[in-house]
Design brief:
Length: 132
């Protein structure tokens, strides 16, 4: 019954949850990181739109999602095997979180897009490395 009531409240969100669960069910570590990057960039772009369109609840939800993903990415860095790359990524994630939180106080979408663009470049590099 809870599933049906959730579906009636927000069918799009229910679909997203089912889709994400399906994509993560059999994904290995690198594939999960790629999914996190994709979800993160999407959350930031939606936050930008929401900020500019005064959709405060949507912005808040997407900012929360983006910061949670940034924490997850940072928490799973392997500093022993990753060395300087892990240190650099930790700094990047921390700085991105700070930018996202500061941007959440305003109505300008550009800071969200800037962070998304930077992280999209890393996501593309990650995607290329996985394909090689």
């Amino acid at each position: 019954m809870a599933y049906a009531s959730a579906l009636l409240r927000d069918p799009a969100q229910t679909y997203r949850r089912i889709d994400l669960a399906g994509r993560t069910a059999n994904a290995d570590g690198p594939a999960l990181v790629q999914l996190l990057y994709d979800e993160l960039c999407q959350a930031l772009r939606v936050a930008a739109w929401a900020a500019e369109n005064r959709k405060f609840a949507v912005k808040s939800e997407r900012v929360t999602r983006a910061t949670a993903i940034l924490f997850a990415l940072e928490a799973n860095l392997d500093f022993e095997r990753g060395g300087e790359v892990s240190v650099t990524l930790a700094r990047l994630y921390s700085g991105a979180r700070k930018q996202v939180i500061e941007a959440s106080l305003g109505q300008d979408g550009k800071p969200f897009r800037d962070v998304a663009d930077t992280l999209s470049e890393i996501a593309e590099a990650w995607r290329a490395a996985r394909a090689a």
